[in-house]
Specification:
Radius of gyration: 17 Å
Largest sheet: 4 strands, antiparallel
Number of strands: 15
CATH architecture: Alpha-Beta Complex
CATH topology: Creatine Amidinohydrolase
Mean pLDDT: 96
Structural class: alpha+beta
CATH class: Alpha Beta
Order of helices and strands: HHEEEEEHHEEEEEEEEEE
Number of helices: 4
Length: 258
């Protein structure tokens, strides 16, 4: 069942989203060779606590961290760890923020130091595919319009869309209906109506779209060890078009150079 949100409820989710966006802005300043994703995870938990928010995924099905930190060939649900990031790595940081019982979800990918042209193209294509999907998130369109916009662009650029993980509805629960596929056929799927709040979160690989799960039971990795990136926003469907609740306003760089 799809749970529609009132404008007042969407505003509460937007406040959670504003905190989440500010976290990503801070993380963008931290990303450099030598930092660890464990340090980032501890920073995020402290940052949220200071603002009266909590990391929703910590404890979700016994997940032990405030963030997911996926490096290079890790697609999603990577465990933060104390291994130093190296020049040329790419890392995706994903988190869900709970503020007064309302949630916002956003992931962002970052280049560590100077990255290869192929890695930079992966980040650029994945990010653009997110916004192409968001453009289709308007009243009267269908979920398939979102998936098709993402998939067609990504594949034209020579990359592949991960099919095992999807976007989703969100509100007081992290995962609500509907599922939001990042591939599909235009004109198919549930119709978008005012009051829906969803995440769009394409995960894109430089190689094969298929994945395997690591020994920790959580982390998804590319089956061929190709690189993967992810960008995600939470957005509301409104009569005036999609309202991104986790927009960072001042856009952050995906590549940082020392």
């Amino acid at each position: 069942m799809i749970i529609l949100k009132t404008p007042e409820q969407i505003e509460k989710m937007k406040k959670a989203g504003e905190i989440l966006a500010s976290v990503h802005r801070e993380i963008s300043k931290m990303i450099k060779p030598g930092i660890t994703t464990g340090e980032i995870d501890r920073f995020v938990e402290k940052y949220l606590k200071e603002r009266g928010a909590t990391p929703e995924q910590k404890g979700y099905q016994d997940y032990p961290f405030a963030t997911c930190a996926s490096v290079n060939d890790e697609i999603c649900h990577g465990f933060p760890r104390d291994e130093k990031l190296k020049e040329g790595d790419i890392v995706s940081i994903d988190m869900v923020v709970n503020l007064d019982g309302w949630l916002a979800d956003s992931a962002w990918s970052y280049g560590v130091g100077k990255i290869s042209d192929k890695s930079q193209k992966l980040l650029d294509v994945t990010k653009k595919s997110l916004y192409l999907g968001i453009e289709q998130a308007k009243v009267g369109n269908r979920l398939g319009d979102i998936g098709y916009a993402i998939q067609s662009f990504v594949e034209e650029e020579g990359f592949s869309v991960v099919k095992d993980f999807v976007g989703h509805g969100i509100g007081k629960d992290m995962h609500e209906d509907p599922q939001v596929l990042h591939y599909g056929t235009p004109g198919r799927g549930a119709r978008l109506v005012e009051g829906m709040v969803i995440t769009i979160e394409p995960m894109v690989n430089t190689g094969d779209y298929r994945m395997t799960i690591a020994e920790n039971g959580w982390t998804a990795k590319t089956v061929d060890k190709s690189l993967s990136a992810q960008y995600e926003h939470t957005l509301a469907i409104t009569k005036d078009g999609p309202l991104v609740l986790t927009e960072q306003n001042e856009d952050i760089d995906t590549q940082k150079e020392e």
